Amino acid sequence: MSSSLHVALRQSKYESLLKGAVFVGIILVLGGSYKLSEIDLPLLWSEDGLHASADFLTGLIPPAHSREFLSYIIKPTLDTLYIAILGTLMGVFLAFPLSLLASHSLTQMGKDESAAEQTPLKKFCRTAPYVLSRGLLNLLRSIPELVWALIFVRAVGLGPLPGVLALGIAYAGMLGKLYSEILDAVDTRPIEALRSTGASKLNIVFYGYLPLALPDLIAYTLYRWECGIRAAVVLGFVGAGGIGQEVELSMRMFNYHEVSTLLMILCLLVGMVDIISGQIRKRMI
Amino acid sequence: MDIKITHLHQNFGGAPVIRDMDFSVMSGERIAFLGPNGVGKTTLFRHMNLMITPAAGGVELDGAAISTLSVKEVRAMKRRIATIYQQHNLIPRFKVINNILAGRLGQWSTTRALFSLLIKSLDVDDVRDVLEKTGIADKMYWRTDRLSVGQQQWVAIARALYQNPDLLLADEPCASLDPRNAEKLIRLLVNWSKQHNTTVIASFHDVELALAYFPRIIGLKDGAVFFDLPAGQVTKQHLQDLYRDEKPREVEAKENVVIPACCITPIEI
């Protein structure tokens, strides 16, 4: 009795030590990053800072609403929407096949079923696509879409196309990883039932993994699409078309009232996408 | 399909689940497995439907030693084996018809499988046949998760029959069925076996049902065959020994449970 009490005490002591260490660690990381990122809060309310902020804020009112300007920004607005839609779609189409290869449960499926085929070569053939596709997804994901946009603006010139390509490539990385994790988290019992009929992997994907994972796949894809709208705006700043490019131009010209119109349109766009994706989610799931 | 299990061994995480199991089954035979929980029945079934390979010993189906087969040959063999699980293991979002079509998934190419998902009227007649046998023909286009647990089990049974197997495995198929449905299921399996010369191997907790409908009974205990007898020769003593707990328990179960008086007095309606 006393020995088990001892163990419990020692464990709780160990646990509280660990908690303390984690707490100190978090403080150190936060403090360090505050110091290293050279945050200078007083600069915000220095005379210059206040002046610039006031200029910007008063410049926002009234928003530009000349007919000429409004008709001019229809196209960039649609461009942003298209970049988000096409970019996300491209991401989906690239991500899906990669996620099948990068799914642990799919690539390792049936590895115990044939004792006759446990050669090193077979093992290599099973793990190589998995490792390669994971590596590719990591590469696509770890380079931010902004950098991809800079690359593609150099490659194919200004306009919406580099935006679509950048978004598609970066989102392929993110969606691919998400998809593979969603596929791995699927209930294994129905999958086992399908496997026991001798079905091929691809048949099991269509008859098992996809219908089981569909709600999650759709929800995350729509969420990515919502993020895609905002990302498409940022990409515009580096010349990838759409509203972002207009915001950047107006900022540079100190046309702050145009900026405020553009920001309002952006809010509307994001809200609209939110409503649409919410509706799709409700219908499909 | 005939089956030969020789010196089968299996362990999970060091603990042996099946030890030195031996038995053989003739084509068209109907066998019921009995035995306490955790005795290795499900593991044995997973050997017979080729989902796992033995740690030692062999499984032979129709004379082919499974350990010598390639992945492709294993898959071809699996097509001839249908399994009914304790839980139905269906796709909840699918319509009933799609869950039943899944039974032929092993026989279909990917194109064929995709067509069956897209064109609804393709295989309706065959599906209706098995659904009528299981008594839920009116639920063909229902979403599976809208059915009751018992009805879902019937869908799983229909899926197994739709596969048209040579070997039908049923791992406690009656677990979620009421006594009347359980008997109906066993009758269906027996009739199907007689009509199609299908080998049927099932495990049960309901001893009386097993003895009534299955000509051969195998009792499993501690991962090995405890008795293997024609149903007529299984005695009460056999069953008592089979289910007796050999390990000493810390708390003995009370033999005479005192029932509170309030439960005995009849309730007036």
Throw out a few tags for this protein:
heterodimer; A: 285 residues; mainly alpha; MetI-like fold; 2 domains; 12 helices; extended; B: 269 residues; alpha/beta; Rossmann fold; six-stranded mixed β-sheet; four-stranded antiparallel β-sheet; disordered C terminus
Describe the structure.
The complex is a heterodimer of chains A (285) and B (269). Chain A has 285 residues and is mostly helical. Chain A has 2 domains: 2-39; 60-284, MetI-like fold, CATH 1.10.3720. Helix content of chain A is 82%, strand content 0%. Chain A is built from 12 helices and no strands. Chain A has helices at residues 2-36, 47-60, 67-72, 74-102, 104-107, 120-142, 145-156, 160-184, 188-195, 201-237, 242-252, 256-284. The N and C termini of chain A lie far apart (54 Å). The model of chain A has no long low-confidence stretch (mean pLDDT 86). By secondary structure, chain B is an alpha/beta fold. Chain B folds into 2 domains: 3-80 and 165-264, P-loop containing nucleotide triphosphate hydrolases (Rossmann fold); 93-162, no CATH class. Chain B is built from 10 helices and 10 strands. A 6-stranded mixed beta sheet of chain B has the order 6-7-8-3-9-10, with helices on both faces. In chain B, helix 5 packs across helix 6. Chain B is globular. Classes of the chains: A mainly alpha (285), B alpha/beta (269). Chain A binds chain B through residues 110, 112-117, 189-190, 192-200, 202-204, 206-208, 211-212, 214-215, and chain B through 49-53, 66-71, 73-79, 81-83, 85, 87, 89-91, 93-94, 98, 102-108, 110, 113-114, 117, 156, 159, 163.
